[in-house]
Design goal:
Two copies of one chain form a homodimer. Chain A has about 260 residues and is α/β, with parallel strands linked by helices. Helices cover about 40% and strands about 15% of the residues of chain A. Chain A folds into two domains: about 70 residues, Arc Repressor Mutant, subunit A; about 110 residues, NAD(P)-binding Rossmann-like Domain (Rossmann fold), CATH 3.40.50. In chain A, helix 1 crosses helix 2 and helix 2 crosses helix 3. Chain A binds a DNA duplex (30 and 30 nucleotides) through helix 1, helix 3 and strand 2.
DNA sequence: AGGTGTTTGTGAAGGGGTGCACAAATCGCG
DNA sequence: CGCGATTTGTGCACCCCTTCACAAACACCT
């Protein structure tokens, strides 16, 4: 967090949704709750207890209740939460009531897969434009979309109201692409390139680095191997590896 | 963290590496430091100051120093850190001195891209096996590897010493695949399927959900739009939110 | 209506992470 | 050899987050 929000700045009662200024940790878990709720709705459940939803989302039930309490009181004591109501509430808070359009830059190996990934459309995102800096790829059709040149970004943003830019280029090209996205008014970027982007204030960048995830797993694997190789100091339960970060913080990040 | 380690259990001086029991937040940042260090080494730098490395990794310099201090004192006051030495140290701590082999399950859209992603090989990981449950895909050659059936996992693990399993299947199939991986002895899983996996203690699962990242961005986008629509109570700066959270987080991992 | 059982919402305690600010340590130079 | 400049390593205070535990609230049954 680069800066803390000033304490009273969000009070502002009277506005339409009255933004509750959610803790960042809560925001990062809301999408997981939403996914679990959709699954429960598909399974026919009309209400869920905090315990049930917490299990489906892989978190502690107390944590779930506190998270939801930040959105307001949408549960009924003795009964639980109304699934449909909660879906609407969380969707609204996340800004998913309107379908958000995404521009994807870089149609290499990874970009190709992202362009065809159906997990986006299922959850309220529409890839509206494919862009690449390599003119030899311009014109190629992927999943019904024509690849356009990165220089056309201004027109593209004018045509479709792009709200998020996804960077799937090689690392050396990423910063230039980010600059171009910012220049045409994009204020949210999802970066798959393994490098740090520098952007002006007001622009959000989230980074996903597939290799980093593997390296973190490698660390734990390494540690587990070292421990089991030791003659067991005094604790006998080393085989079970009580240690654990097993499924907790894991099982949901990107949390960390 | 599902459980805390008992206070004195890790002291155990005398073992070969003397595992320092790193904070989880530090572990999630080490890969980013490693990437930045490689870039610096390629650029010809032999030493870096904490300030320089922190900038390259997108973190605070004090945080970086504290993180590195957990590994031991490998810096020289008044000079900085030896790049090559630090690369070796971090690689060693992360267990990257040996090349780790990965089995990838699910060669659909996403799996296909992961199989061809060169970011893995570059950083010490080798995809040693491609596996799918769909027999119509078995035999297909991707990036020089033949797709094999998931039932062959026992033989595959016997041939290659698999240390990490990557699940890139649709959500409904993920749990069954995880069970099979665990059954053949895999204790680290990277899960791209949008669902919660349940695994026994001792098995680490990290989850990467591309749609969740977009939803988190959507929230901030939504909030920014609501705020700018307001007459601005007092705060004008919206804060870029460059920092992030553990694992897959903003501008640095996942993160978390 | 009243009692009982269930579940939410939250106060409070504790742990962990972050960042400031400074002392200790090292280098280079006169 | 001593001094100043530079940079690391870390004690400390603060803040956020997590978790426990419990009172308040609601539904259902008799």
């Amino acid at each position: 967090m680069s800066q803390h929000r000033q304490p009273g700045a969000s009070g502002r009662t009277g506005a339409i949704p009255a933004l509750p200024d959610l803790p960042e940790a809560t925001v990062s878990r809301l999408p997981e709750y939403l996914r679990a709720l959709h699954a429960l709705a598909d399974a026919g459940h009309e209400t869920v207890s905090s315990e049930g939803l917490a299990n489906a989302a892989g978190v502690n039930s107390a944590k779930l209740r506190k998270d939801l309490s930040h959105l307001g009181s949408y549960g009924t004591r003795g009964v639980g939460y109304d699934v449909a109501l909660l879906v609407d509430q969380i969707s609204s808070v996340l800004g998913l009531t309107q379908c958000r359009t995404v521009a994807l830059v870089g149609v290499g190996n990874l970009g190709h897969a992202l362009a065809g990934y159906d997990g986006f459309a299922n959850r309220g995102f529409r890839i509206a434009a494919l862009v690449d800096a390599d003119r030899s790829r311009v014109g190629e059709v992927i999943n019904g979309l024509v690849v356009r040149h990165v220089d056309e970004l201004p027109q593209i943003v004018a045509e479709e109201s792009i709200s998020i830019g996804v960077i799937a280029t090689p690392a050396p090209a990423a910063q230039a692409v980010a600059d171009q996205l910012v220049a045409v008014g994009v204020t949210s970027i999802l970066n798959f390139a393994p490098c740090v982007l520098s952007v002006p204030d007001g622009v959000d960048v989230r980074k996903v680095d597939l290799a980093i995830e593997l390296q973190i797993l490698s660390f734990h694997e390494h540690r587990k191997a070292s421990l089991t190789a030791l003659p067991a100091t005094g604790g006998s339960a080393l085989t079970a590896l009580p240690g654990g970060f097993a499924a907790t913080d894991t099982q949901e990040a990107i949390g960390t």
